[in-house]
Structure prediction request, 192 residues.
Amino acid sequence: MATWNTGWEIEFPASTADEIQIALVVRDLIHGASYDVESEDTGAEFAVDYTAGDEFEDECYRLLLAAEIDGAEDAALVQAFTEQTLEEVLGEAEALLAQRTPIAEAPLSGVRFEVVPEDEERWDLIAPDWLAPDGAEVPFGFRAFDTGSGVPFPDDATLDAHGRVIAFDFGDKLVLVGIPAPIEHHDTVEEA
Prediction:
């Protein structure tokens, strides 16, 4: 089987806090996802691994989605599968956000973003790539810290109390929102 790569830029509206949260949870759910796929129509099989990043510009959130595919190079089939997968992920993101809990807000001027060592990364913290300081591995290699106390914002206890914590900038504030952990999807064969 051949290995090949492709990618997409998917735009989400991002003029409200709710819109930003949806886009960030979609990114969190698709980043690192792997699927073994068998086409219902042709019987073609492939494996796909997704990685995701993001950008923000003019009230538009841009999901930068990359795919590494093991299988015959069939861009149309991978595109169709990816569109179907993103629709399902969007539905899951909306369901998770329906159960959200506001946690806290802080002035952006009162926090700084710092690179953290790999053993201090938190996979349960969802933060946009644009908040990462230079040299940080995204999406998990950085955190916000209170500029006065030096304590992480959110702290580990807050992260431990929620399935995921979304930390995003809106206006002049850093906003924290808790959501349940996503449902784990284990090595299932998807049909495209």
In short: Residues 101-179 form one domain. The chain has two domains: 3-99, 101-179. The chain is about 20% helix and 40% strand. Residues 76 and 82 are 10 Å apart (CA to CA).
